[in-house]
Write a structure and sequence with these properties.
The structure holds two protein chains of two kinds.
Chain A lengths: L3 H26 L7 H41 L2 E6 L12 H11 L2 H4 L8 E10 L4 E8 L15 H38 L17 H52 L4 H29 L7 E4 H17 L4 E4 L8 E4 L1 H18 L5 E11 L2 E9 L34 H11 L3 E6 L5 E8 L3
Parallel strand pairs in A: 5-7
Antiparallel strand pairs in A: 1-3, 2-3, 4-6, 7-8, 8-10, 9-10
Helix pairs in contact in A: 1-5, 5-6, 6-7, 7-10, 8-9, 9-10
Chain B lengths: L1 E6 L3 H11 L4 E6 L2 H9 L5 E5 L7 H11 L4 E6 L3 H9 L4 E5 L3 H17 L6 H5 L2 E3 L2 E4 L4 E4 L2 E3 L3 H12 L4 E3 H9 L9 H13 L2 E2 L2 E2 L1 E4 L3 E4 L5
Parallel strand pairs in B: 1-2, 1-3, 3-4, 4-5
Antiparallel strand pairs in B: 6-7, 7-8, 8-9, 10-14, 11-12, 13-14
Helix pairs in contact in B: 2-3, 4-9, 7-8, 7-9
The chains are: A alpha+beta, B alpha/beta.
Chain lengths: 463, 234
């Protein structure tokens, strides 16, 4: 029972039921057998009066008179009256029901005084005289009270167990709504938190959380304040990034034009330093671009485009480009034949391309002259999921074991081997790793057998 | 002498561009405000407009939309680097080409010259054989002489890029033209990886001409190769 809802629901419900049921039984047990003594007196008096009247009728009209009286009473109030003088001797002259004569017999035996009939018994009786008539028989009146009207609602008609069941169900209903009203805001908060984690910062909850003063509603308001702050910060960050990019690149744009002007005017004299300035300016531009990409990727605020990306085709295109670039440095980039065909995934073509390009370029940078950067791609099944495994291997110095897991940190450099002269910006692999992770994949580095760095990228495929 | 209008809020960059482009034979005027730039672009005094996307007051795309509403003057957009979506939007809205900022000025020069060649290429004085043959395919009639395109007798407004693209496709109607060829002939540059410009131009051409002709796809995409204009039934 991990869910808070179930916890609250069952604990409240059980508490109420476990307390209520014993009380119900205790109450049932202690109920006075004749709840209203005055009622008993009243019924005794009423019977005495009925008895007097019946006797009077009997004296007046004999058996017929008594019957007329009895019929009259029965018609008016539904009460049947029987008079007995001695066991089984009904004065009405007709056969009395067995219950009537039984009750009369019990009263004549004197039982009624000690054991008054249980409440609800419809047969009542009382002794009117001990020695009556010529034979000196006891005279007893027995009344049959008409069936009481049925209670309007069914609860009262049922046995205690039915009542307990009904009671439990009613409590359960109340507890259910209580537990729901307590946990519903929490569930809403959770949904909202999930949406924020997914990058939707516009979500607000206060409207659904109830009125002010309620602790959960206050929590909701605080949550909204937090969400608003995060949204503001992210917006500010996005704007800042845009501004930085613009502000840093405007001077670069001017620099480039000024550089060309200088080239036009200086003739061949300054060609070399000018070429160097151009190269550094390009590097700076590249670095700005990469830094921005990394910042956006790190913040996770990027809405991932969902193109359909054909991985083998993408790899081929990137390989051709990289091979062309590497050719000028006597290095080659090759894509293994039989590269998994039809490996299609959903994601951002641009980001994936950049990720692959960065990894391959890194390989080109470190592989020795006249060697190849080897790329292969295959698909594997892992449970239900189809994965693409892309391996990029260079023939360079590799990296010491201890720093393999730091390779994807921004600006991390292996001091001696991967120095600044190699020309990278230092965040290419970091970008690649984050881009791959954003697509639900992962990236690992290892030293290949026989030297060189091996980078393995695993990406989930569509379908 | 070509007259170029640069619309960019970076005044210093504009000054440098004026200095750089003048010796190359261009008369450059610069505007730093979107509104003024737009008015200037619509005055018809310029052969080409270089338009920055990030402009104060009005977005560069807005300016482009206003220009395209009444003018076919070639437009080269300067986009923010890394904003691929900007390029596509620009091309879809009828820009002739784009260049990410910061750009290499030599690249800018090459692009400007390419656009220039394109708009002059089909002019009557350029070559007789072009003037001679009108290209007719299905409901389309392209006249290189007058640089006009008629569809079912009605005149069709195309940008210079779209015109060149349609010209190349119609010339080879019924045959596949590769993306490389199209990029080289229409945009006057080598096709590089992930250069989707030609596809965007094809798609806007499709929109203007209609997707189908005689119940067949008008411009068919041949995956991994290029495009094919449907052979006319006649």
């Amino acid at each position: 029972m991990r869910s808070l809802f179930l916890k609250i629901f069952f604990s409240f419900w059980l508490t109420i039921v476990l307390m209520g049921v014993p009380f119900y039984f205790v109450g049932l047990k202690n109920r006075p057998e004749h709840p209203f003594p005055s009622m008993r007196d009243f019924s005794m008096q009423a019977m005495a009066r009925y008895g007097d009247e019946a006797l009077a009728a009997w004296h007046e009209g004999g058996q017929d008179g008594l019957r007329a009286y009895v019929d009259n009473i029965e018609q008016r109030s539904g009460i049947s009256i029987y008079l007995f003088a001695g066991p089984g001797a009904s004065l009405c002259g007709r056969q009395a029901p067995a219950e009537a004569s039984d009750t009369a017999a019990r009263i004549m035996a004197g039982e009624e005084e000690n054991h008054p009939p249980p409440p609800g018994d419809r047969w009542l009786g009382r002794r009117l005289a001990q020695d009556w008539g010529k034979d000196g028989q006891p005279l007893v009146i027995v009344l049959k009270i008409p069936e009481p009207p049925r209670p309007p609602f069914p609860l009262a008609r049922h046995t205690p167990w039915d009542n307990i069941l009904l009671y439990s169900l009613a409590c359960g209903l109340v507890c259910y709504f209580l537990a729901r009203s307590l946990t519903a805001p929490i569930r809403k908060l959770r949904e909202a938190t999930n949406r924020i984690a997914g990058g939707d910062f516009s979500v607000r909850v206060a409207g659904d959380m109830g009125r002010e003063g309620n602790e959960v509603a206050d929590l909701g308001r605080d949550f909204d304040a937090m969400a608003e702050r995060i949204e503001g910060l992210l917006l500010a960050q996005k704007r800042l990034l845009r501004d930085i990019s613009h502000e840093l690149r405007s001077p670069l744009a001017r620099l480039n034009v000024a550089l060309e002007l200088a080239r036009q005017r200086a003739g061949g004299n300054a060609a070399q330093p000018l070429a160097r300035i151009e190269k550094e300016s390009e590097r700076l531009n590249e670095l700005i671009g990469q830094l921005m990409t990394l910042t956006i990727l790190e913040s996770g605020a990027q809405e991932l485009e969902r193109d359909t990306v054909d991985l083998p085709e993408l790899l081929r295109a990137v390989t051709v480009d990289a091979d062309f670039e590497a050719g000028s440095r006597n290095r080659r980039v090759t894509l293994a034949a039989g590269c998994a065909a039809g490996a299609v995934m959903h994601g951002s073509q641009e980001l994936l391309r950049r990720a692959l390009e960065n990894v391959i370029r890194n390989g080109v940078r470190y592989t020795r002259d006249n060697t190849e950067v080897e790329i292969s791609c295959s698909t594997v099944l892992e449970g239900e999921a189809r994965l693409a495994v892309i391996a990029v291997r260079d023939h360079g110095p590799g990296a010491p074991e201890w720093c393999l897991r730091h390779l994807f940190k921004p600006f991390f450099r292996v001091a001696e081997a991967r120095d600044r002269n190699s020309g990278g910006t230092g965040i290419g692999l970091a970008i690649a790793e984050r881009a791959v992770r954003l697509h639900g994949g992962n990236m690992k580095a290892a030293n290949a057998e026989g030297g060189g760095l091996l980078v393995i990228i695993t990406l989930p495929l569509a379908g | 002498m070509s007259r170029i209008l640069v619309i960019d809020d970076d005044t210093e960059l504009c000054e440098l561009l004026v200095d750089y482009l003048q010796p190359e034979g261009f008369a450059v005027s610069a505007m730093h405000q979107a509104q003024q730039g737009l008015a200037c672009a619509l005055s018809g005094e310029h052969d080409l407009v270089v338009l920055d996307v990030m402009l104060p007051g009005m977005n560069g795309f807005e300016v482009l939309r206003h220009i395209r509403a009444s003018s076919a003057v070639p437009v080269l957009m300067l986009t923010a680097r890394g904003e691929e979506i900007d390029r596509i939007i620009g091309l879809e809205m009828g820009a002739d080409d784009y260049l990410p900022k910061p750009f290499n000025p030599r690249e800018l020069l090459a692009r400007i010259r390419a656009i220039q060649r394109r708009s002059e290429a089909h002019l009557p004085e350029d070559g007789q054989q072009m003037r001679a043959e009108k290209l007719i395919a299905g409901d389309i009639c392209l006249d290189p002489g007058t640089r006009s395109v008629m569809q079912n007798g009605g005149n069709l407004e195309l940008t210079t890029v779209e015109f060149s693209l349609l010209y190349e496709l119609l010339k080879m109607a019924g045959q596949v033209v590769s993306r490389e060829e199209l990029t080289e002939r229409v945009l006057d540059r080598k096709l590089s990886t992930f250069d989707r410009s030609i596809d965007v131009h094809v798609s806007s051409l499709r929109k203007k001409l209609g997707q189908e002709v005689n119940g067949r796809e008008r411009i068919k995409t041949i995956r991994g190769v290029g495009y094919l204009y449907a052979q006319s039934a006649s």
